[in-house]
Amino acid sequence: MSGKKLELAPDRFFDPDPAQRRLAVELYEAAAEMPLICPHGHVDPTLLSDPEASFGSPTQLLIIPDHYVFRMLYSQGIALESLGVPRIDGGEVETDHRKIWQIFADNFWLFRGTPSGIWLTEELVNVFGVNEKLTGESAQRIYDQIAEKLATPEFKPRALFERFNIEVLCTTDGATDPLDHHKAIKASGWGGDVRPTFRPDAVVNMMMAGWRENIDALSKISGVDIGSYGAYIEALENRRAYFKEMGASATDHAAILATTAELSMAEADTIFQNALRGAITPEDSNRFGAHMIMEFARMSIEDGLVMQFHVGSMRNHNPVVADRFGADKGCDIPVRSEFTNNLRPLLNEYGNDPRLTLIAFTLDESTYARELAVLAGHYPALRIGPPWWFHDSINGMRRYFDQVMETAGLYNTVGFNDDTRAFPSIPARHDVWRRASADWLAGLVVRGMIDMGDAREMVIDMVYRLAKRAYKL
Amino acid sequence: MSGKKLELAPDRFFDPDPAQRRLAVELYEAAAEMPLICPHGHVDPTLLSDPEASFGSPTQLLIIPDHYVFRMLYSQGIALESLGVPRIDGGEVETDHRKIWQIFADNFWLFRGTPSGIWLTEELVNVFGVNEKLTGESAQRIYDQIAEKLATPEFKPRALFERFNIEVLCTTDGATDPLDHHKAIKASGWGGDVRPTFRPDAVVNMMMAGWRENIDALSKISGVDIGSYGAYIEALENRRAYFKEMGASATDHAAILATTAELSMAEADTIFQNALRGAITPEDSNRFGAHMIMEFARMSIEDGLVMQFHVGSMRNHNPVVADRFGADKGCDIPVRSEFTNNLRPLLNEYGNDPRLTLIAFTLDESTYARELAVLAGHYPALRIGPPWWFHDSINGMRRYFDQVMETAGLYNTVGFNDDTRAFPSIPARHDVWRRASADWLAGLVVRGMIDMGDAREMVIDMVYRLAKRAYKL
Amino acid sequence: MSGKKLELAPDRFFDPDPAQRRLAVELYEAAAEMPLICPHGHVDPTLLSDPEASFGSPTQLLIIPDHYVFRMLYSQGIALESLGVPRIDGGEVETDHRKIWQIFADNFWLFRGTPSGIWLTEELVNVFGVNEKLTGESAQRIYDQIAEKLATPEFKPRALFERFNIEVLCTTDGATDPLDHHKAIKASGWGGDVRPTFRPDAVVNMMMAGWRENIDALSKISGVDIGSYGAYIEALENRRAYFKEMGASATDHAAILATTAELSMAEADTIFQNALRGAITPEDSNRFGAHMIMEFARMSIEDGLVMQFHVGSMRNHNPVVADRFGADKGCDIPVRSEFTNNLRPLLNEYGNDPRLTLIAFTLDESTYARELAVLAGHYPALRIGPPWWFHDSINGMRRYFDQVMETAGLYNTVGFNDDTRAFPSIPARHDVWRRASADWLAGLVVRGMIDMGDAREMVIDMVYRLAKRAYKL
Questions:
Q1: What is this model's ipTM?
Q2: Which of B64, B363, C98, C200 could form a disulfide with B334 if both were Cys (CB 3.0 to 4.6 A apart)?
Q3: pTM over 0.95
Q4: Is residue C401 part of a domain?
């Protein structure tokens, strides 16, 4: 009745050397008990605002919304329509969730050795109690097993939030979001600590579709009539105050390049007025964006919100997919990044001010040792975010530890964040980080670079304290 | 009579951890039995077209034609003339092969820990049965031993082809090559599967010396009077059809930059007509080259030939050497590469079409994790070639596995190719890949990231199936 | 009375695998006996010219002058004033050395796992015999212990020079330095071999503050009236001859970019005359700098001085710190580098001449495998310097071995230099290199890539012979 046995090795992801592994296990066990701090991610707050919310079918939970999963299937020639990914035009896509699940299971071997494969496997075993490998043969049995679990109260989002031992979870929310779901969570009396994060990209990036409408929405929700750059800044500050009141401790900003540059009020206003009139060039939009990053740093110094800066992702590289299925469909591709020159204006102006915490994330690992570790090892305001996106993996973490820590020092990093919209994958992602951290520290101990006393402190810093402190949680 | 003993450790290149090594040996043993698939390389087909062809002296076999070998000696101040490398002007160079061999042996310690050192050692032991280290002292004894073997029928190229268990070997051939040697091989009734590969660089790159003459040769051999861009395209398609008829399954294209961009027919024709008249600028040549890469992708979709794209080698960096000794003399130096922006026009136009297989090779490892793995993990048409040239080494492979596989997935890679003109080094090169693959997989198993069932499949994929499938062999 | 015990593991920094570690220990023991060759560094020669010179207090020795140390404290919000770093304007800073030491000790945990932490710990144990961990609690006891030692004759700089077994130490000295301290050392009859290195940046870089005054100083000390480019070259050659007479075997040159380009005499003179009149543009300064690198290569061919080229550090990134505390205060940040194109003019002109030894240093590790290893594996004149600055660490060395050695070959590298102004850290820095080298070689042996006979030669090459040979010491 059952297929190939599926088990997770208790000492998985640790170096095979017995001496290092023994220490890694000891360090991991201490780390594994700590609650999860989730300071950055993309969980939909509606899952938690409605106590009766549910995840839907196994396919709705694990495949349709997860671009990590369907990008790999797509890369091997499987149409997104056949995976039930909704089309923008409402056109036909597969709706039989068992059929989609079967395609996924038939091709699950494509994920061998990938982080998605590891997270999915951990979810199957640890969240859903599956004990056979997912293959074409076992597909429907496993579907049944997950579907059955998902129908029970123990598998409602709030129940999993508690079971996962999440101490705090931050969502990511547009500047114009009324945060009704966060209000509902607070009002519900449920004890889960769920906080918004202020992400104003859609009202900053003038080339983004809908910018003009977003400014109107910002006007409306802030009650500030945005006819000038000054009013725009006022409206943003107003929204930040509201987010902060709602529990936010951080903001988040994305850009292809890390460029920062201060404009005069007059220049900023001219560009802004032009943009309001629809007369914006890519150059002006970029200059304005570079300026706004500096403005947001100034605001952070004033209101104390921690500033996250995600650099280097070219969005919607593939217009065929983006036009048909929309944004966040696996066609965001990293580009080379530069921080030493680009961050200089911001760091010169605000980087010596310890009231600012600027957390930089990169998709260009060549900047780890060359630029970010050195900058963060000097400027009081700068910290380096954990390995991001494609680098949130065993090897990605190993490269990060290898290339960042010696120069930046552990204490200029900020622990881990899971950055996911796939709620049930949260524990698996943190577990990978915890194991990778324990293994890295065990490697330092067994090489005589630190002692176990240090390592025991450091592992708790890495999985709990650093994130909490950096994000002021 | 004999010098320092030379032996190959049976478990060489594997991690020293006993648990990992045990698994690596098991996986390697399965891989070692598979025939060699050689989908890309530079073996001279005349070695195989004439049943009586021979390799000449040990020096002719191992030193004079191998720029991997003489570049290292040259870097330490040994003149290429003293190594018998022929001069373009026919000027005097060393002709005493024993004397050259002696210089090589005296300096063989320079190759300690290098891939060339490893390949040469493997050849000495496994191909020629040498069992003492190559030093100044042992030089002439080993020369005798190799020379004696080379004089026997067992050491004719075809005999070695069979002994090496080569299932298929693809050569690399200019667009104007009549493929007479491939015809002769077919006609000879010998069973070896030797196929041409269509490499049109010399009729595409307008700045390359001889381009005009090459166009004339293309006219002649295709029977198409190339007076226009349209006729040029027709001639190329004609040659591709001929190559395909002769067994070719792939094309190959080289460029310093990965730029792709579509020109209008009118623009392409203008540049082409100018070039015919000798009025070409580097800018126009680059634009034309970027356009032709897209044209070749279109042709590949139509005729099914797999498209290889080798990016990032600056040819003949050292004019002192290039002017005296010609091309391919060890003075090709990599430059930084960029794929996310540069391949975008091509991928947007053709990258969603699963009929296209575009295999990208890079010499810039910083593009592995940042660009290529992400692009190949999304676009159905794109695959990543194995570690190329200077990275075809134990560490180069380890870095490739580390940086490519988690994001691209193994199944968006294409196995191995030896890319060599040094025919007797083929088994040594494949053996390094097989051992590195087995060790990488053993490392995943021992860390609980995959199980042995997966690893046993994956190792055969890596050493046999992936190349065969990607190249349609 | 004593705090947490502090011990150095005898087999520290070696791989935990018992087989590899056993071999590493054997190789290390052979290496550890060799004298120290220090061909590049920033030790103040006054420490050695005056037999009675002393290091001052523990704080003066280990904190105030060491930007590796205070940059990390500064990055965590500790003011440089509170660490006693002198201000340019002579303004008030902390002068109580025990108080500064206490801050350092309270925060010493910030250095966990960093090279600075490792060097400092090694100095405490091996130079000063400290056997408890440095913490806030143990701070003043350890201060007493070091201060007591520093007051004894055994801890004078010359005594430590001998105890450290330094065979030769090269300082770094401006072109206008009279080298009086080197003269005094020679005249004193003391046997220590201390040599100057010719570093002309301050008379080359026209944008550097004080360039005009430095030219006057150069005029004066060389006795050449520098009214023209020709006279300038003559003055430089004159100084090189003097440095050589004083024992110098090398020069050193720094640049943000590796650009090299030859100007005509007329162009060079025009730019030079403009600069003398204070009419210099950044572009002209860069062009002149690129030209002078080529000129210095020509001079090196003529006078035999080895040429060092340090590329990629943006100096004084943080003007707030630089304006208040001056240069070399931890705010130098690396930028991306390029060598293939930039070094081409120089290498084409002089790179085939084995009389030239050009040693290139990079802070951009992405250039190791892609550019420098390939260039040095071809051009007879080019060698690759050891991992520099932020990369002079266990992981930095491992990445260097991994990415440089296969392609360049060990024999196109130049061993180690400690590059430090922190005199008592010299043995610790060499020890890290020796251990890392032994471990790397042991890893090759245990993987069957070289044999122990080779490894025993290579380890002595790496810790002694290569540096001595490359720098002609």
A1: 0.97
A2: B363
A3: yes
A4: yes
